[in-house]
Design brief:
By secondary structure, the chain is of the alpha+beta class. About 25% of the residues lie in helices and about 30% in strands. The protein is built from six helices and eleven strands. The strands form three sheets. Strands 4-5-6-9-8-7 form a six-stranded antiparallel β-sheet. The chain has a three-stranded antiparallel β-sheet with strand order 3-11-10, with no helix packed on it. The protein starts with 12 loop residues before the first helix and ends in a 6-residue tail after the last strand.
Length: about 250
């Protein structure tokens, strides 16, 4: 990896450095290789460490780099993979759904989910936590909020806690007739609990996918799924549907 003069370029230093680093990743580094530490890179390019961090963060956001606990910054593989967009979304837990139930509790949902559900501010809802794994590596974590009215036949005795409780909520949810769904996608930062589950650092870039499931009676459930932004990309179909694709190799 060579050096470059950044003093005379008209664009922001970090942006030019990002371009130089990107070219170096293609020419001098293999997928999975660990980059030199920040001090060495900053000295090599003659920039402040703050400028270097901006460039590295942008490359991470674009999926060129990955940061992992105890490993450092490594070169990421291309983003390819399995579609998990509209065509793959049905009732959570139905056949073909490759999310794994982890746990289910009863709690008041956060304000954003509360507004979508239309429930009272102090009303407890079933909160199902699920994970999506590709080739043994976590790529997404989900919180599914289900009001009690959507699963009236649920029995606390049959499945009091844990994955069994989560499966019971999903099973009861499927007794309803799904009329439709809507979905929004936005860029965000990983919270501490999601970062731990996804093997990322807190604050790492993520895609937040919020899905609202409808029956004839109204909103039956709301899903908030956190996808690792370093392993996925968005594509847009002719129908206007948004697809999220994952690279199984990038999950490592």
């Amino acid at each position: 990896m060579g050096t470059t003069q950044l003093e005379t370029v008209p664009e922001p230093k970090y942006w030019h450095l990002k371009t130089v680093l990107s070219e170096a990743l293609d020419q001098d580094f293999a997928v999975g290789e660990v980059l030199p530490n920040e001090r060495e890179l900053a000295a090599r390019f003659g920039v402040a460490r703050a400028t270097l961090r901006q460039a590295l963060e942008q490359l991470e956001l674009e999926g060129r780099l990955q940061r992992r606990r105890g490993v450092g910054t490594t070169v990421a593989p291309p983003r390819l993979g399995v579609a998990v967009g509209s065509a793959q979304h049905c009732w959570p837990g139905e056949s073909g759904d490759d999310w794994t139930p982890v746990d289910a509790t009863e709690a008041v949902p956060p304000a954003a989910a509360l507004g979508l559900l239309g429930t009272a501010a102090d009303q407890l809802v079933h909160t199902v936590r699920r994970t999506r794994v590709t080739q043994g590596q976590p790529v997404a974590a989900e919180l599914l909020y289900v009001p009690a009215a959507s699963v009236p036949g649920l029995s606390a005795i049959d499945a009091p806690a844990g994955p069994a409780r989560a499966r019971a909520v999903l099973r009861e949810l499927q007794r309803l007739v799904l009329e439709g769904q809507d979905r929004s996608v936005e860029l965000g930062s990983a919270r501490a609990d999601d970062a731990k589950e996804l093997d990322r650092l807190p604050g790492a870039p993520v895609l937040l996918v919020t899905t609202r499931y409808f029956t004839a009676a109204g909103t039956a459930a709301v899903s908030v799924a956190t996808y690792r932004a370093d392993t996925c990309r968005l594509t847009f179909a002719d129908t206007g549907d948004v697809e999220i694709t994952h690279d199984a190799r990038a999950a490592s």
